[in-house]
Design brief:
The chain is an alpha/beta fold. The protein has helices spanning about 40-50, 65-75, 110-125, 145-155, 165-175, 190-195, 205-220, 255-270, 275-290, 320-325, and strands spanning about 1-5, 10-15, 30-35, 55-60, 75-80, 85-95, 100-105, 130-135, 160-165, 185, 225, 235, 240-245, 310. It comes from Nocardia caishijiensis.
Length: about 325
């Protein structure tokens, strides 16, 4: 079982255009779709499609559109009533694969609701293989909340913990978490730059990204899966570092690509694969999501695993990181 937490769920609405998006102009949509969303929800959808049980924990009522969408899709969930309604995230997808996203802030969670959500997650984590804390935090939630949840879940000791977030909650994960640390963190290049103070453009280079990720390993994280967009991804653990390039695809939408990469990694981990093959699976799933339209997420039939190769990166050392930072 993989348990995911989506503290800030959404209805993901995608508007597909047949022409380039022009600011200030009138456009007519070729297609509009809506799906239950939020990063943890996306991970649960991909994991379930991959044949592994998943449980999505989220704030919501029995009749809100996200919960109804999960029920209709056959995704197991545990909803904690908060009295609010989910946000809507709008994606505008152009024919060349360019996507423009407009995300609402979400419904504020008050302390009693947050405590109930934490309790539901802790209870659901018992016996799980992985717990995934994923996405933004809604208004009113302390930025260090993910860090606190990592400590609580680590103390329970029943599951490995993966975190995929950004901005202040991501920074707080390293500032606030004491002896407890996540087993896996999945930043993109911008998020890796936030954590290390390096230039995001320089981190598009796999070796530089791996060196930056090594610094996070030294701060206690078990593994770092850094997604590099169209370039692929790197994986760094205490045992080494690897890079896998993305297979050739026609990009149609980047929505859910990072979530799919994380799901692919977790599926490979549960299958007992070694780090290089876990990275290959992550890149294959992320690339498959990019090749699909709108908010569509990949299943096993969409994955081109044989087209992804992983190579060790021997120069991901702290000294190399220092050299990169001062050059």
């Amino acid at each position: 079982m993989i348990v995911t937490l989506t503290a800030n769920p959404s209805v993901d609405r995608t508007v597909t255009l047949t022409e380039p998006l022009l600011r200030g102009q009138v456009h007519r949509a070729a297609n509009v779709t809506s799906q239950p969303g939020g990063k943890g929800v996306n991970v649960a959808r991909v994991v379930t499609s991959g044949g592994v049980p998943a449980l999505a924990v989220l704030p919501g009522t029995e009749d809100d559109p996200v919960v109804s969408g999960l029920r209709g899709a056959g995704i197991a969930f545990r909803a904690v009533p908060t009295g609010g309604t989910p946000r809507t995230n709008l994606t505008i997808a152009e024919a060349d694969g360019t996507t423009t996203k407009i995300n609402e802030p979400g419904y504020p969670l008050r302390a009693p609701h947050l405590d109930a959500l934490a309790a539901a997650l802790t209870e659901s984590a018992v016996g799980a293989a992985w717990v995934v804390l994923s996405g933004s935090l809604p208004p009113g939630v302390p930025v260090e909340w993910y860090a606190r949840m990592v400590e609580e879940l680590s103390a329970a000791g029943s599951a490995k913990i993966a975190v995929d977030t950004s901005d202040a909650p991501l920074l707080a994960l390293f500032e606030e978490t004491g002896s407890a640390a996540a087993d896996l963190v999945k930043p993109n290049t911008d998020e890796l730059a936030q954590l290390t103070g390096l230039d995001p453009a320089g981190l598009e280079n796999p070796a530089a990204a791996a060196r930056a990720a090594t610094a996070l390993i030294e701060r206690g994280v078990g593994a770092v899966l850094a997604t590099l967009g169209a370039a692929g991804a790197v994986l760094v653990t205490a045992e080494g570092a690897w890079f896998a390039g993305a297979p050739p695809i026609v990009a149609r939408s980047t929505v859910g690509a990072g979530d799919s990469a994380l799901a692919g990694y977790l599926l490979a981990d549960l299958a007992g694969l070694d780090p290089a093959d876990r990275l290959r699976a992550a890149v294959a799933y992320g690339s498959a999501a990019t090749a699909l339209p709108g908010t569509e997420l990949p299943g096993p039939a969409d994955i081109m695993l044989d087209a992804v190769l992983a190579h060790p990166l021997p120069d991901a050392s702290p000294k190399a990181l220092d050299d990169t930072a001062t050059s």
